[in-house]
Write a structure and sequence with these properties.
Layout: E1 4-8, H1 20-28, E2 31-34, H2 37-46, E3 53-54, H3 57-60, H4 62-73, E4 77-81, H5 94-102, E5 106-110, H6 115-123, E6 130-135, H7 140-150, E7 156-161, H8 166-177, E8 181-186, E9 194-199, H9 200-209, E10 216-220
Helix pairs in contact: 4-5, 7-8, 8-9
Bound molecules: S-adenosylmethionine.
Amino acid sequence: MSGILSIVATPIGNLEDITLRALRVLREAEAVIAEDTRRTAILLQRHGIARPVESCPAFREASACARVVERIAAGERLALVSDAGTPGISDPGARIVRACVARGLAVEVIPGPCAAVAALCGSGLPTHEFHFVGFLPPKAVARERRLRELATLPGTLVIYESPHRLCAMLGQAAGVFGARPAAVARELTKKFEEFRRGTSAELAAWFATHPPKGEIVFLVGPGHPEQRRPTSL
Ligand code: SAM
Protein backbone atom coordinates (compact mmCIF):
# COMPACT_ATOMS: atom_id res chain seq x y z
CA MET A 1 0.00 0.00 0.00
CA SER A 2 1.38 3.45 -0.81
CA GLY A 3 1.96 5.92 1.99
CA ILE A 4 -0.03 9.08 2.52
CA LEU A 5 -0.22 12.06 4.85
CA SER A 6 -3.81 12.65 5.96
CA ILE A 7 -4.48 16.12 7.36
CA VAL A 8 -7.36 15.56 9.76
CA ALA A 9 -9.49 18.36 11.21
CA THR A 10 -10.62 17.72 14.79
CA PRO A 11 -13.19 19.42 17.08
CA ILE A 12 -12.73 23.01 18.32
CA GLY A 13 -14.64 22.27 21.52
CA ASN A 14 -17.50 19.87 21.06
CA LEU A 15 -16.06 16.37 20.71
CA GLU A 16 -19.02 15.32 18.55
CA ASP A 17 -17.76 17.60 15.77
CA ILE A 18 -15.73 15.02 13.90
CA THR A 19 -16.61 13.51 10.57
CA LEU A 20 -17.18 9.83 9.85
CA ARG A 21 -14.31 10.00 7.37
CA ALA A 22 -11.98 11.55 9.96
CA LEU A 23 -12.77 8.71 12.37
CA ARG A 24 -12.12 6.09 9.69
CA VAL A 25 -8.83 7.69 8.64
CA LEU A 26 -7.65 7.92 12.28
CA ARG A 27 -8.63 4.28 12.81
CA GLU A 28 -6.74 3.15 9.69
CA ALA A 29 -3.59 5.25 10.23
CA GLU A 30 -0.38 3.53 11.27
CA ALA A 31 0.14 6.44 13.68
CA VAL A 32 -1.40 9.77 14.56
CA ILE A 33 1.08 12.66 14.62
CA ALA A 34 -0.28 15.09 17.21
CA GLU A 35 0.51 18.54 18.57
CA ASP A 36 -0.37 17.43 22.11
CA THR A 37 -0.52 13.67 22.59
CA ARG A 38 -2.66 13.86 25.75
CA ARG A 39 -5.31 15.98 24.10
CA THR A 40 -5.46 13.76 21.03
CA ALA A 41 -5.56 10.66 23.24
CA ILE A 42 -8.78 11.98 24.85
CA LEU A 43 -10.39 12.42 21.44
CA LEU A 44 -9.34 8.97 20.24
CA GLN A 45 -10.46 7.35 23.47
CA ARG A 46 -13.85 9.04 23.21
CA HIS A 47 -14.31 7.41 19.81
CA GLY A 48 -12.81 4.03 20.75
CA ILE A 49 -9.77 4.42 18.49
CA ALA A 50 -6.61 2.70 19.70
CA ARG A 51 -3.80 3.97 17.45
CA PRO A 52 -0.31 5.08 18.49
CA VAL A 53 -0.17 8.82 19.07
CA GLU A 54 3.21 10.42 18.48
CA SER A 55 4.21 13.86 19.62
CA CYS A 56 4.59 17.01 17.69
CA PRO A 57 8.26 17.79 17.02
CA ALA A 58 7.69 16.50 13.51
CA PHE A 59 5.52 19.55 12.93
CA ARG A 60 8.19 22.09 13.74
CA GLU A 61 11.68 20.66 13.39
CA ALA A 62 13.13 20.01 9.99
CA SER A 63 14.92 16.81 11.08
CA ALA A 64 11.85 15.28 12.72
CA CYS A 65 9.77 16.41 9.75
CA ALA A 66 12.19 14.56 7.46
CA ARG A 67 11.67 11.36 9.49
CA VAL A 68 7.91 11.59 8.97
CA VAL A 69 8.47 12.11 5.24
CA GLU A 70 10.71 9.01 5.12
CA ARG A 71 8.05 6.93 6.83
CA ILE A 72 5.40 8.00 4.34
CA ALA A 73 7.82 7.35 1.47
CA ALA A 74 8.28 3.85 2.92
CA GLY A 75 4.53 3.27 2.67
CA GLU A 76 3.10 4.35 6.05
CA ARG A 77 -0.26 6.07 6.32
CA LEU A 78 0.14 8.85 8.90
CA ALA A 79 -2.61 11.12 10.18
CA LEU A 80 -1.71 14.67 11.17
CA VAL A 81 -3.83 16.45 13.79
CA SER A 82 -3.41 19.66 15.75
CA ASP A 83 -4.83 20.42 19.20
CA ALA A 84 -8.09 21.67 17.73
CA GLY A 85 -9.55 22.49 14.35
CA THR A 86 -7.71 22.31 11.07
CA PRO A 87 -3.94 21.67 11.08
CA GLY A 88 -2.07 24.48 9.34
CA ILE A 89 -4.62 27.17 10.25
CA SER A 90 -2.79 29.19 12.94
CA ASP A 91 -1.46 25.79 13.96
CA PRO A 92 1.55 23.74 12.90
CA GLY A 93 1.17 21.59 9.83
CA ALA A 94 2.28 23.61 6.80
CA ARG A 95 5.96 22.58 7.07
CA ILE A 96 5.26 18.86 7.00
CA VAL A 97 2.78 19.24 4.14
CA ARG A 98 5.35 21.24 2.14
CA ALA A 99 7.95 18.55 2.76
CA CYS A 100 5.61 15.82 1.51
CA VAL A 101 4.64 17.84 -1.55
CA ALA A 102 8.31 18.53 -2.34
CA ARG A 103 9.00 14.79 -2.18
CA GLY A 104 6.04 14.00 -4.46
CA LEU A 105 4.17 12.09 -1.73
CA ALA A 106 0.40 11.79 -1.48
CA VAL A 107 -1.38 14.28 0.77
CA GLU A 108 -5.11 14.28 1.51
CA VAL A 109 -7.27 16.60 3.59
CA ILE A 110 -10.15 15.46 5.76
CA PRO A 111 -11.98 18.75 6.23
CA GLY A 112 -13.85 19.65 9.37
CA PRO A 113 -14.00 22.29 12.11
CA CYS A 114 -12.17 25.58 11.76
CA ALA A 115 -12.90 28.42 14.20
CA ALA A 116 -12.46 31.08 11.50
CA VAL A 117 -15.11 29.57 9.22
CA ALA A 118 -17.53 28.79 12.07
CA ALA A 119 -17.21 32.36 13.38
CA LEU A 120 -17.64 33.90 9.94
CA CYS A 121 -20.73 31.84 9.14
CA GLY A 122 -22.47 32.77 12.41
CA SER A 123 -21.36 36.39 12.55
CA GLY A 124 -24.01 37.86 10.26
CA LEU A 125 -21.25 39.70 8.38
CA PRO A 126 -20.74 39.29 4.62
CA THR A 127 -19.27 35.89 3.77
CA HIS A 128 -18.83 36.24 0.00
CA GLU A 129 -15.34 37.66 0.46
CA PHE A 130 -13.20 37.43 3.57
CA HIS A 131 -9.59 37.71 4.67
CA PHE A 132 -8.21 35.33 7.30
CA VAL A 133 -5.68 37.21 9.45
CA GLY A 134 -4.89 34.73 12.23
CA PHE A 135 -3.30 36.30 15.31
CA LEU A 136 -2.32 39.98 15.43
CA PRO A 137 1.05 41.08 16.84
CA PRO A 138 0.92 41.02 20.68
CA LYS A 139 2.57 44.44 21.12
CA ALA A 140 0.29 47.46 20.89
CA VAL A 141 2.29 49.53 18.39
CA ALA A 142 2.78 46.67 15.93
CA ARG A 143 -0.86 45.67 16.37
CA GLU A 144 -2.09 49.17 15.56
CA ARG A 145 0.10 49.23 12.43
CA ARG A 146 -1.27 45.86 11.33
CA LEU A 147 -4.89 46.89 11.94
CA ARG A 148 -4.35 49.97 9.76
CA GLU A 149 -2.94 47.81 6.95
CA LEU A 150 -5.87 45.41 7.23
CA ALA A 151 -8.42 48.25 7.13
CA THR A 152 -7.70 48.80 3.43
CA LEU A 153 -8.59 45.23 2.43
CA PRO A 154 -11.97 44.36 0.94
CA GLY A 155 -14.23 41.74 2.55
CA THR A 156 -14.75 40.66 6.15
CA LEU A 157 -11.63 40.37 8.32
CA VAL A 158 -11.33 37.29 10.54
CA ILE A 159 -8.90 37.66 13.45
CA TYR A 160 -7.92 35.23 16.22
CA GLU A 161 -7.46 36.94 19.59
CA SER A 162 -6.70 35.92 23.16
CA PRO A 163 -9.16 36.88 25.94
CA HIS A 164 -6.39 38.79 27.74
CA ARG A 165 -5.80 41.12 24.81
CA LEU A 166 -9.36 41.42 23.52
CA CYS A 167 -10.25 44.70 25.28
CA ALA A 168 -7.03 46.46 24.30
CA MET A 169 -7.39 45.26 20.71
CA LEU A 170 -11.05 46.32 20.51
CA GLY A 171 -10.09 49.80 21.74
CA GLN A 172 -7.60 50.10 18.89
CA ALA A 173 -10.04 48.56 16.40
CA ALA A 174 -12.62 51.21 17.34
CA GLY A 175 -10.18 53.92 16.25
CA VAL A 176 -9.23 52.13 13.04
CA PHE A 177 -12.57 50.68 11.86
CA GLY A 178 -15.01 53.31 13.21
CA ALA A 179 -18.64 52.40 12.47
CA ARG A 180 -17.93 49.25 10.48
CA PRO A 181 -20.08 46.33 11.72
CA ALA A 182 -18.11 43.83 13.77
CA ALA A 183 -18.61 40.72 15.89
CA VAL A 184 -16.93 38.66 18.57
CA ALA A 185 -17.46 34.89 18.46
CA ARG A 186 -16.51 33.23 21.73
CA GLU A 187 -16.30 29.60 22.86
CA LEU A 188 -17.73 28.26 19.61
CA THR A 189 -19.36 24.82 19.85
CA LYS A 190 -18.96 24.86 23.65
CA LYS A 191 -21.40 25.33 26.53
CA PHE A 192 -20.91 29.10 26.74
CA GLU A 193 -20.85 29.84 23.00
CA GLU A 194 -21.56 33.51 22.38
CA PHE A 195 -21.90 35.79 19.36
CA ARG A 196 -21.81 39.49 20.21
CA ARG A 197 -22.37 42.00 17.43
CA GLY A 198 -21.93 45.77 17.13
CA THR A 199 -19.28 48.29 16.22
CA SER A 200 -15.79 47.76 17.61
CA ALA A 201 -16.46 50.58 20.14
CA GLU A 202 -19.70 48.92 21.29
CA LEU A 203 -17.92 45.59 21.65
CA ALA A 204 -15.08 47.28 23.55
CA ALA A 205 -17.59 48.83 25.96
CA TRP A 206 -19.36 45.49 26.51
CA PHE A 207 -16.22 43.48 27.18
CA ALA A 208 -14.80 46.20 29.44
CA THR A 209 -17.63 45.38 31.86
CA HIS A 210 -17.89 41.66 31.01
CA PRO A 211 -14.31 40.36 31.03
CA PRO A 212 -14.07 37.71 28.33
CA LYS A 213 -13.00 34.14 28.98
CA GLY A 214 -12.21 31.32 26.60
CA GLU A 215 -11.39 31.27 22.91
CA ILE A 216 -12.21 34.21 20.70
CA VAL A 217 -12.55 35.23 17.06
CA PHE A 218 -12.99 38.92 16.18
CA LEU A 219 -14.54 39.86 12.85
CA VAL A 220 -14.94 43.21 11.08
CA GLY A 221 -17.23 43.72 8.11
CA PRO A 222 -16.13 45.52 4.94
CA GLY A 223 -15.63 49.26 5.02
CA HIS A 224 -17.06 50.04 1.62
CA PRO A 225 -20.90 49.88 1.43
CA GLU A 226 -20.67 48.21 -2.01
CA GLN A 227 -18.91 45.24 -0.43
CA ARG A 228 -21.57 44.91 2.28
CA ARG A 229 -24.33 44.00 -0.16
CA PRO A 230 -26.12 40.82 0.81
CA THR A 231 -25.51 38.00 -1.63
CA SER A 232 -28.41 35.99 -2.98
CA LEU A 233 -27.01 33.08 -0.96
N1 SAM B 1 -6.43 25.35 13.96
C1 SAM B 1 -7.46 26.05 14.65
C2 SAM B 1 -8.65 26.28 13.71
O1 SAM B 1 -8.78 25.54 12.72
O2 SAM B 1 -9.46 27.16 13.96
C3 SAM B 1 -6.96 27.34 15.26
C4 SAM B 1 -5.87 27.13 16.29
S1 SAM B 1 -5.28 28.62 17.01
C5 SAM B 1 -3.86 28.04 17.85
C6 SAM B 1 -6.36 28.87 18.36
C7 SAM B 1 -7.24 30.08 18.19
O3 SAM B 1 -8.36 29.77 17.35
C8 SAM B 1 -7.86 30.57 19.49
O4 SAM B 1 -6.98 31.42 20.21
C9 SAM B 1 -9.09 31.31 19.00
O5 SAM B 1 -8.75 32.57 18.50
C10 SAM B 1 -9.52 30.40 17.84
N2 SAM B 1 -10.43 29.35 18.33
C11 SAM B 1 -10.16 28.04 18.45
N3 SAM B 1 -11.23 27.39 18.95
C12 SAM B 1 -12.19 28.32 19.16
C13 SAM B 1 -13.52 28.28 19.67
N4 SAM B 1 -14.06 27.14 20.09
N5 SAM B 1 -14.22 29.44 19.73
C14 SAM B 1 -13.68 30.60 19.31
N6 SAM B 1 -12.42 30.70 18.84
C15 SAM B 1 -11.68 29.58 18.75
